[in-house]
UniProtKB/TrEMBL annotation, chains A, B:
Transmembrane segments: none annotated. Residues 1-347 form the Aminoacyl-transfer RNA synthetases class-II family profile domain. InterPro entries: aa-tRNA-synth_II, aa-tRNA-synth_II/BPL/LPL, Anticodon-bd, Anticodon-bd_dom_sf, His-tRNA-ligase, HisRS-like_core, HisRS/HisZ. The keyword Transit peptide does not apply. PROSITE patterns: AA_TRNA_LIGASE_II. This is Histidine--tRNA ligase. It catalyses: tRNA(His) + L-histidine + ATP = L-histidyl-tRNA(His) + AMP + diphosphate + H(+).
Length: 440, 440
């Protein structure tokens, strides 16, 4: 990471950006292989739009033009702010363009988002998210909840990181179970259970007690939240709870179905975990979190869920399901731990040496001829001694140096030097583009 | 463009985004062929950094956290704002990372920028710029001023737009000429001449008079500003002015050199135009503007220049030269006039039909097998009648529909239907990816 005077705003050196671009390209490819169309939404939304979900309000950056009066700007109900996720803007985009879109609408969106919070370790105030969502017009069949997990499992498995685990739960299970055991404050229960990872069962129990949950309810909820495993394990443990409700059974049906299908299509990556709560109110079905093996302290790097009514114009509702990758958090870890590195910090494959400044035009002609054939080329910045020009290539990781007078090209990594014709010469495949080495 | 309730913040429909991505990809490829490395800088800078150039101060968006007091935030000297170009953040990035970068540093940067101005026709408050800059440590040879023009000429000529003209001038000519004719207020002269396109010679003359320029000086300046053409034409017209100064000759030498070299390397795209002034104070050598034939009313879609001291840490100066493409303005015109259109609005090549919901898994297996071979596939959203499933493909522009039971695939554009094996079938090349049709 570059030394930046503003914490929470990550920037990479050119060689880090090569790795980030590699990761972004893998993500895009994976999404497109599965038929997701790309869109971008503006970075700026009216505050009224951003505040529809009260919960995240404290993390928003508001905008004012330099010439505007600060107090008047703050009182203006049409004041603008930076988006803090890609879901809220997407909901607005769907409503605005519903007449022009084809449903179910499968889109991906890779953009920066901003949160005006105090930065902590690994928490950024500006970061890139990569989201997929599938939105239906009026209804959306359950199989799409399987689909997004399958896509994300494949995409994340294509990245230069250790194996990932997508942990899934279903809101209907939690809600149905609450009904069965007589808990009415489902939101309160969800908020407490969401902290199980951080503060443990005892801490969650205490918080529930503070919210007025009876001892029996607390025990029952914690019992449920400790259930984990594959389809069969989840089934038998939930059966052992001996609780029944229609909603619970519906949720169980969906969760078992999801676990069974994902085990077939992306084996070993998806597991059930009834502690997964996800804070946001609007989830109504499957919820997802993702951890990277050995990097659990990163938190969830890909989360989301099913929502029945995020987008609605009053008459019509657009249910959806989506997941979001925290790209910057992931890239930051990959770079910090050297999980992937680039063979060079420039795209250049060939540096054409310059014999003397009077003959720079000749070197330009060679570079242009290579570029015309799709080979990234550059001319040496100085007509210095060839040893220095080779060093200029080496500093940037450029593998080939072309000598115009000799009509020869040298691979400065292998040391091989051969005669070459600019009209036909090809680099060895492994040197054509920057290579990403991974830590596996 | 999608109907958006906020003017000045462009958003595209998925089919428009396909065209934009095509244009962005052409730009990236062109930059990388010429050895430019990609970086991104954060969108947010301290206001003190943004205001170093006073001129654009009125167009800045300032930020405040929702919980912050508006008045206190406005008084905080460390207040943050959104960047309004990519040059100022790049200068900061170079200074912060000077120890880790290799000079001359050639970078490209494609990001959104924001200007808090009232939107006019074609003026956006949020838009994408694509910049190249070459920055030296202490010094930067003139040939890089030729290089950026060559790169931009090639990149812009690869886009689905009519032929472009890069118009160039050299600040040393303007300044040297001012010296020769006794004009001391060079900045004032530049500001007035910059409006020649908009208000004509008469208007510029009037503005100069208001600034106190004598009649003779006004005439001399307007005479110079009307000089246009290739190397020989510029040379003879400037000679006819019969003015001499060392700086003028230096600038003429550079301009002639640039016009001669570009005429050889990118014939017919670069022309001299001594009216090009560019408002910004920091340019010190070549300045560039670019118009699209038949779309002159778009204004300049790619501008920039040579600057000797944008980045400096007091001890050391980093001179540079750069140009910036106004991508959103260009894309907006391309979409509005249909200069390029996409054959489909999804990446999907094959829609696998679903015989009935009980057999969806079979369709998923076919889609997964195609994806594993790099072919973008999707399953039909509903197990409706095949006619309806074909219609679902047609609505999205998906060229192929796969029928699992029959083991056949139909090209719904040509109508051809053939037996197909999922392990070996390949789409016709022209249907593999969305095709961009251009208006040429």
């Amino acid at each position: 990471m570059s030394k930046t005077s503003l914490s929470g705003f990550p920037e990479w050196l050119p060689e880090g950006r090569v790795v980030e671009n590699y990761i972004l390209q893998k993500i895009r490819q994976g999404f497109e292989l599965h038929g997701f169309a790309n869109i971008e939404t503006r970075a700026i939304e009216p505050v009224s739009e951003l505040l529809r979900k009260g919960e995240t309000s404290k993390e928003i950056y508001l905008l004012r033009r330099l010439q505007e009066d600060p107090v008047k700007a703050a009182e203006d109900p049409r004041q603008l702010g930076l988006h803090f996720d890609l879901t809220v803007p997407f909901a607005r985009y769907v409503l605005e363009n519903r007449g022009a879109l084809t449903f179910p609408f499968k889109r991906y969106q890779i953009q920066k988002v901003w949160r005006g919070e105090r930065p902590q370790d690994g928490r950024f105030r500006e970061f890139t998210q990569a989201d997929i969502d599938i939105v239906g017009d009026g209804s959306l069949p359950f199989f799409h909840e399987v689909e997004v997990a399958v896509v994300m499992a494949r995409v994340l498995s294509s990245l230069p990181i250790p194996p990932i685990t997508i942990r899934v739960n279903n809101r209907k299970i939690v809600q149905g179970y609450c009904e069965a055991v007589g808990v009415t404050d489902v939101e309160g229960a969800l908020r407490c259970l969401d902290k199980l990872d951080k503060i443990g069962a005892e801490g969650v129990g205490e918080e529930m007690a503070e919210l007025g949950f009876a001892e029996e309810a607390r025990e029952k909820l914690l019992q449920m939240a400790q259930i984990q495993g594959d389809a069969a394990q989840i089934r038998s443990q939930v059966d052992a709870l001996a609780c029944k409700s229609e909603l619970l059974e519906e949720g169980m049906g969906e969760l078992i179905d999801l676990l069974t299908q994902t085990e077939e299509r992306v084996p070993g990556t998806v597991t059930g975990d009834l502690s997964i709560a996800r804070g946001l109110d609007y989830y109504t079905g499957t919820v997802y979190e993702t951890t990277v093996t050995g990097h659990e302290n990163l938190g969830s790097i890909c989360s989301g869920g099913r929502y029945d009514s995020l987008a609605s114009d009053g008459k019509r509702t657009y249910p959806g399901v989506g997941m979001s990758i925290g790209v910057s958090r992931l890239v930051s870890r990959v770079l910090a731990e050297g999980l992937a590195t680039s063979s060079r910090k420039v795209p250049t494959c060939v540096l054409v040496a310059v014999t003397d400044e009077e003959h720079r035009a000749e070197s330009n002609r060679i570079a242009d001829a290579l570029r015309n054939r799709g080979i990234s080329a550059d001319t040496a910045p100085k007509a210095a001694k060839f040893g220095k020009q080779i060093k200029a290539a080496d500093q940037r990781g450029i593998p080939y140096v072309w000598f115009p007078d000799a009509g020869e090209v040298k691979n400065i990594i292998s040391g091989d030097q051969t005669e070459a014709d600019v009209a036909t010469w090809e680099p060895e495949e492994c040197y054509a583009k920057p290579q990403i080495s991974t830590d596996n």
